[in-house]
Write a structure and sequence with these properties.
alpha+beta, 7 strands, about 170 residues, 5-stranded mixed barrel, about 40% helix, OB fold (Dihydrolipoamide Acetyltransferase, E2P)
């Protein structure tokens, strides 16, 4: 009988010991976090401060790091063009957006390569742009002309498929 009591108490202690990590994970993080975060903040700050400075100093050097991660698409009517500043404005419902043309910008019109001189007012344009850290919008690609026109011109050369005629 005594062995059964000892065995039962050992099983209870073992089950509690195994359940403690599960209980600790389900506890609110607010009660554990202050005790854990105090120690790492005091020790690494003195050692990580010198290493953090060079990392932040090298990040601003690249202009690609200053741009948004992905190009953002745009589409609309060109309301203004400034050839000297190499910018054009797309009128929007809420506000207008001014896009800067750079040497990296790819401009096409009807599938052919175009230039800044080909961009005119009251013309439909679409493409993509990068948002720079200073808030300027740098055009990555610009496609001039209506979107539907480009789709129909590429679809017309394809001949319709005909089913083979049955042989007698």
């Amino acid at each position: 009988m005594r062995n059964k009591i000892n065995l039962a108490s050992i099983l209870c202690v073992a089950s509690l010991a195994l359940a403690m990590p599960v209980i600790a994970q389900r506890m609110p993080q607010t009660s554990i976090a202050p005790a854990v975060s105090v120690v790492p903040q005091t020790v690494p700050r003195t050692s990580s401060s010198p290493s953090a400075s060079p990392k932040t100093a090298t990040s601003p050097a690249g202009s690609a790091a200053k741009q948004s991660a992905r190009p953002v698409p745009f589409h609309g009517m060109i309301s203004a063009v400034d050839q000297s500043a190499k910018t054009f404005t797309i009128a929007g419902k809420k506000q207008s957006r001014v896009f800067k043309i750079t040497d990296k910008t790819s401009i096409t019109e009807g599938g052919n390569t175009a230039s800044m001189k080909d961009i005119t007012e009251n013309e439909e344009a679409s493409g993509s742009y990068w948002k720079n850290a200073d808030g300027t919008l740098e055009a990555k690609t610009v496609k001039l002309g209506p979107v539907g026109k480009a789709k129909t011109s590429t679809a017309s050369p394809v001949a319709p498929k005909t089913s083979p005629s049955p042989k007698p």
